[in-house]
């Protein structure tokens, strides 16, 4: 069966006006014809039987494959084979043949035209995809730029408050040069809140952060020796807490406007408040370790005190046995006096070596023990104490 089909082709992107299209369709039934039109994304206006000669309707035709059938379509307009092939290729049909009625081309010629159309359509689609992607990236960039700009303006407001507090509470640490620089940048930032130059605002904020950071570090360093600990059981002071809160706040603000965080503060970005707690714990552990090292450095002094206490106890034992148990042999006590006295002598001699490294102190202690266990048998044999 042959039908004259009137349709409308609408632009999927809505950039062009709807196009009225009329063609001749050789197909088995009206129902199948409607299904074909629906699959082609065309809007059907009318479907009328056609009883005339097919070649009198139009000069060019195309044969497409649809649900395992070959359907011939004759175009009424003065289209070329190329135009007709491009049209149906854009509708995602598989073209099997195309030609003119009056001046038919050879199969080789029509195949060449069809191949060129496929190549042209592929290049066009790739170009359209690239344009769409570029447009999406541009829209995304605009969105991010607007978002960054809004966050940068929030940071500007917070930074101006920070600078006012700095000039009020820490004015003694602000040099005349820094004061002029800060005031100049503050005035520029106040003007920039009305601008849309995000890069300029970001660079200006970064410079202001560097100056404020340097002044605050000088301020905190000057108060470290006089600051009091927060609690009796910790060495963390109020200055330590204030410094870490200030650093954490600045890093968070730099993250807000995509500023550059210094390398030594990269860990704050990953751990945030957890890093502050870890740094406080580290300070307490270092303090405890340093106190332990003080005991290590005086190990020989503590040994002498311990040996003296033991010798006093032994003397008391000797006096007790002499007064109340005269039959008890005192040789083991005398030998203990001898061995402990020798150990005390070694401890006294090694205490004159003032080592400043805990590893060296440990090595000296081990060396003293070696001297003791080597020397005791020699002295025991020399003085016939066995």
Largest sheet: 6 strands, antiparallel
Provide the residue-averaged pLDDT. 79
Number of contiguous helices = 11
State the share of residues found in helices, binned by percent.
Answer: 55-70%
Poorly predicted regions: none
Order the strands across the largest sheet as they lie in space: 3-1-2-5-4-6
Task: Count the beta strands.
Answer: 6
Strand content: 5-15%
Assembly annotation:
single chain
CA-based shape: elongated
Distance from N terminus to C terminus (CA atoms, Å) equals 132 Å
Roughly how many Å is the radius of gyration? 48 Å
SSE topology string = EEHEEEHEHHHHHHHHH
The helix/strand class is: alpha+beta
Write a concise keyword list for the protein shown above:
64% helix, single chain, alpha+beta, 386 residues, 6-stranded antiparallel β-sheet
What would you note in describing this structure?
The protein is 64% helix and 11% strand. It contains eleven helices and six strands. It has helices at residues 30-39, 81-90, 107-169, 176-192, 198-223, 238-256, 266-271, 273-297, 299-324, 331-350, 358-382; strands at 2-9, 19-26, 43-49, 60-66, 69-75, 94-100. Strand 4 and strand 5 form a beta hairpin. The model has no long low-confidence stretch (mean pLDDT 79).
């Amino acid at each position: 069966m042959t039908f004259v089909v009137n349709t409308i082709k609408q632009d999927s992107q809505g950039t062009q006006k709807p196009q009225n299209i009329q063609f001749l369709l050789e197909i088995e039934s009206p129902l199948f014809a409607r299904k074909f039109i629906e699959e082609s994304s065309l809007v059907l206006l009318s479907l009328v039987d056609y009883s005339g000669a097919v070649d009198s309707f139009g000069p060019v035709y195309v044969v497409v494959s649809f649900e395992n059938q070959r359907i011939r379509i004759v175009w009424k307009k003065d289209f070329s084979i190329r135009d007709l092939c491009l049209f149906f290729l854009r509708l995602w049909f598989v073209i099997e043949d195309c030609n003119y009625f009056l001046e038919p081309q050879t199969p080789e010629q029509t195949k060449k035209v069809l191949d060129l159309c496929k190549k042209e359509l592929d290049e066009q689609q790739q170009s359209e995809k690239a344009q769409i992607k570029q447009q999406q990236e541009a829209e995304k960039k605009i969105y991010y730029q607007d978002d960054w700009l809004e966050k940068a303006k929030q940071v500007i407001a917070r930074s101006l408050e920070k600078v006012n507090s700095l000039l009020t509470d820490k004015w003694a640490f602000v040099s005349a040069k820094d004061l002029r620089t800060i005031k100049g940048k503050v005035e520029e930032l106040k003007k920039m809140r009305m601008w849309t130059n995000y890069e300029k605002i970001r660079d200006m904020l970064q410079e202001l952060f560097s100056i404020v950071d340097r002044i605050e570090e000088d301020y905190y360093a000057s108060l470290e020796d006089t600051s009091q600990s927060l609690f009796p059981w910790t060495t963390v002071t109020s200055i330590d807490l204030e410094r870490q809160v200030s650093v954490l706040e600045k890093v968070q603000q730099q993250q807000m406007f995509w500023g550059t965080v210094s390398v030594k503060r990269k860990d704050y970005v990953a751990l945030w408040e957890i890093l502050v707690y870890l740094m406080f714990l580290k300070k307490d552990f270092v303090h405890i370790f340093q106190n332990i090292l003080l005991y290590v450095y005086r190990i020989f002094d503590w040994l002498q005190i311990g040996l003296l206490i033991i010798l006093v106890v032994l003397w008391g034992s000797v006096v007790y046995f002499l007064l109340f148990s005269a039959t008890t042999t005192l040789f083991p006590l005398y030998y203990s006096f001898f061995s402990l006295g020798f150990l005390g002598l070694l401890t006294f001699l090694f205490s004159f070596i003032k080592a400043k490294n805990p590893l060296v102190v440990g090595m000296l202690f081990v060396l003293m023990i070696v001297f003791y266990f080597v020397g005791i048998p020699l002295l025991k044999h020399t003085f016939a104490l066995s």
